[in-house]
Amino acid sequence: MSFSIAISGKGGTGKTTLSAVIVRYLVRLGKGPALAVDADADGNLAESLGLNGVKTVGAVLEEMEKKVSQFPPGFSKDDWLEAKLTEVMIEEKGFDFLSMGRGEGPGCYCYVNSILRRIMDVLEQNYPYLVMDNAAGMEHLSRRTTREADILFLVSDHSIKGVQSGARIAELARELELDVRKMGFVINRVPGEVNPVIRQKVEETGLGIIGSIPEDGLIKRFDLEERSLLELPEDNKVVKAVKEMVEKSL
Ligand SMILES: Nc1ncnc2c1ncn2[C@@H]1O[C@H](COP(=O)(O)OP(=O)(O)OP(=O)(O)O)[C@@H](O)[C@H]1O
Ligand SMILES: [Mg+2]
Q: Among positive and negative, which fits the CA dihedral 105, 110, 115, 116?
């Protein structure tokens, strides 16, 4: 069984950025390959990790639907998917990567989600660490692509609204009785110290702040230059803050 890290939170608060920096940390930890999963249908974790032209599970499923009538007798969709999985799994130095992508039809990801859940059940046995970047909001909980996690990071920007979104996600995780062993806030883009008003708001949720990540110009520059966050230097302040946060959580 792997140690699974799920990343959730309000839109645009830094989930993907932090997921990539967590992967960076795990790669350097060198305790075996981590599995990085982009569970956001409109995700960009691949790019943040320097990967381009990635084939998604959704794309493979679409291809399958077109070809299913030509399958030889006795050859099931599952057989086909299993064979195709090697095509979507990207193997990099220190980590493997899988992207969910978008499934058939506009707006319906149900099939992709159910496939993703099954794939994850099998795959997570093989990796010591699993990092899952999720779409903004709560759908990954209600659709149960996140069913269990050793730790669920609720990423918020340095705002009350961000904390309120995180609180709602935590509430739903509890309501659904998901097997989440630990949950906590990660306040991202903090200008200096976390504002006491925000600290108070977090306290009211009954959860703690596991990580406080500074606003950092280099992250913005990497974004503009479309550079892989794996290349961030060791002395970068976001890298350091993420390291501290993950070490506390493992
Ligand atoms: N600590 C930081 N300092 C400076 N910029 C940051 C920091 N964290 C994230 N950003 C920037 O904020 C923007 C949004 O980040 P990101 O894409 O990681 O958010 P997200 O939560 O994954 O968004 P979405 O909800 O769309 O998936 C990006 O341009 C990123 O470079
Ligand atoms: Mg994202």
A: positive
**223 Cα nearest atom in ligand 1:** 31
**CB distance 238 to 232 below 8 Å:** yes
Give the predicted TM-score (pTM) of the model: 0.94
Ligand nearest to the CA of 15: 1
Give the CATH number, domain containing residue 96. Answer: 3.40.50.300
Q: Which of 16, 23, 190 to mutate to test the pocket of ligand 1 (most atoms within 8 A of CB)?
A: 16
Band of pLDDT at residue 104, cut at 50, 70 and 90: low
**Which residue is it, tokens 């149900």?**
110
- Ligand 2 centroid to residue 203 C-alpha, Å: 26
Range of the domain at 113: 3-249
Residue 108 has pLDDT above 60, yes or no: no
Q: What tens digit of pLDDT does each residue of 50-89 get? A: 999 899 988 888 888 888 888 888 888 777 877 887 788 9
What's the domain count of the chain? 1
